[in-house]
Amino acid sequence: MDAEGIRELFADILPVRVRRLFGGLGVYDGETIFALVFKGDIYLKISPATLERFVAAGCRPFTYEARSRERALGYWSLPDAALDDLDTLRIWTDLAREAARQKASRLKLRGSRLRAPLR
């Protein structure tokens, strides 16, 4: 799926920004990435609270090979049913957007902690 197809898919839910990312595409809500597109598959951001829903829906993790090891990011495939039903797509999109916002908030907090001055 190309960038225009992604914009059309999410058009009735929210306006998204699509950018090239690691040989695929990143899908953004404002400045927050909530989905990846790689080799035509859409992967949504997960959180510990949503992982079981993705597993139960038969989704699979986004993985890649690095230094002879398979690595996983916190993104899982979009359930096939979400491509055919707007309400289902909205539910999964909302889960991914919330997981992405939570992750972004944790990163901002970690980056804003006061550090002791160097001596």
Provide structural commentary.
The chain has a six-stranded antiparallel beta sheet with strand order 1-2-3-4-6-5. The chain has one domain (3-103): YgaC/TfoX-N like chaperone (Yope Regulator, Chain: A), CATH 3.30.1460. It has 119 residues and is of the alpha+beta class. The model has no long low-confidence stretch (mean pLDDT 89). The protein has helices at 3-10, 51-56, 86-112, and strands at 17-21, 24-29, 32-38, 41-45, 61-66, 69-77. The longest helix has 27 residues, at 86-112. Helices cover 34% and strands 32% of the residues.
Task: Detail the topology: elements first, then pairings.
Elements: H1 3-10, E1 17-21, E2 24-29, E3 32-38, E4 41-45, H2 51-56, E5 61-66, E6 69-77, H3 86-112
Antiparallel strand pairs: 1-2, 2-3, 3-4, 4-6, 5-6
Task: Describe the structure concisely for a colleague.
By secondary structure, this protein is α+β, with helices and mostly antiparallel strands. The chain has a single domain, classed as YgaC/TfoX-N like chaperone (Yope Regulator, Chain: A), CATH 3.30.1460.30. The protein contains three helices and six strands.
Shape: globular
The N- to C-terminal Cα distance equals 53 Å
Helix content: 25-40%
Query: What can be said about the biggest beta sheet?
Result: 6 strands, antiparallel
Q: What would you give as the CATH superfamily?
A: YgaC/TfoX-N like chaperone
Give the helix/strand class. alpha+beta
Averaged pLDDT = 89
- What radius of gyration results from the CA coordinates? 16 Å
Low-confidence stretches: none
CATH arch. level architecture? 2-Layer Sandwich
